[in-house]
Description:
- By secondary structure, the protein is mostly helical.
- It has one domain (4-71).
- The protein is 78% helix and 0% strand.
- The chain has 5 helices and no strands.
- The chain crosses the membrane at residues 48-67.
Amino acid sequence: MFGKPYRHQGISPSFSLLADSSHSTGFSKSFSFPHFFHPLYSSRCSSFLGVIYLFIIFIFFASLYFIEIVEI
């Protein structure tokens, strides 16, 4: 649906890193900025999807951070 160039640029690898590593190391690994943001500039459609992905990631980390504060 999105074509191979969009997928090849590393959106899904960043999500697999988020899924299988702790959030402190996963944050720095998955947010290698040139690699992660490159697909956002390829077309208007993928930039819109990229904003959605960033929003989901932001909510994910915010919820993890909030859960840690509550546990302490």
